[in-house]
Amino acid sequence: MLHLFNPENDLALGAGCRHYTPPPRVSALHRAGGLMPAWWSGASDCILAPEATDSEAGWLEREYGLKTDLSPVGCPRPWGWSADARRQFLAAGVAAESLPSDEDVERMRFLSHRRTSVSILSALGRGDLAGCELKEVGEDIAMTCGDFFVKSPWSCSGRGVFSSRGLQTDVLRSRMAGIIRRQGSVMVEKEWEKVRDFAVLFVSDGVKAGFAGWSMFEAERRGAYTGNVVAPQDVLRGRIGCDIDISGLETVLSRLVAPYYKGPFGVDMMVYRDGGIEKVHPCIELNLRMTMGFVAMEVQNRLSLDRPALLGWEYGDVSAVPLLKPREGFALTLKGL
After folding, report:
1. What local confidence, expressed as pLDDT, does residue 166 receive?
2. CA 280 vs CA 31, 67, 119, 129, 293: distances in Å
């Protein structure tokens, strides 16, 4: 495998262009996390990180015994697929025939749209939980049914998501219109009484989507991601608590996702409270890419932590144990819970 950490991927999907220029802070995160795939790559894998230094690679080997090969060879495996990710591999000399075609990438972009969660919920028989897609800001029922979330079709880590709570109507409409102007539509979803966030991880082989593990993450009330819990799988499953129909979800994802995508992906879920009863929302969104849940699982496998810890990115002063050598103000860290 030839791994590429491209955290700008969801933004590139939203832009829909081949030559995407991310904001400076996202570009800095791309460079700071260039060697992060060392935590999940195999012994014969390589990492596409042209700006990584020998010092950073040496630090990883000294601290954690992780060896890195920066040769641009192997079957391409980015954090996520976009036209811009394809361009980065081509620029590194990867043969076009070993990459998904432009048409394949566009199919993956289509599936990465947040409207896919509506299709998944409908196929699970839970259309009652689904949001709706708006292509213009009109007098839609969603605008008058209480608090709701507004979501950009393509965004990541809870960004591009905001609550209608406390917003004046003209401000709300203006922000929604801005998203529609940039990305063609906007998703509107009811705001549930959230108890805890989690995700179910899958891997697609191009035919079937198979269960890969559990993920628990922390987020602010308005959705911004703060970190993933690193712990053994049985501990995570116990914390989630509620029953989840994995086989039913595998069947749906094998039909809707697997034929068009190979690799790891996650389905974000939520335990919410309805009339005092805890229930599972089985699809908040589909993350058709590598996720921090997979990273947390690999970190646990390599370090065998005795106590749960929180994996996340810190910016500025590092207050926890770094898993990559800090760079440009960013550090991937572990801290106790």
Report:
1. 82
2. 37, 40, 17, 10, 18
pLDDT of 160 reads 83
Task: State residue 146's pLDDT score.
Answer: 67
Section 5-15 average pLDDT: 95
User: Do the Cβ atoms of 32 and 105 come closer than 8 Å?
Assistant: no
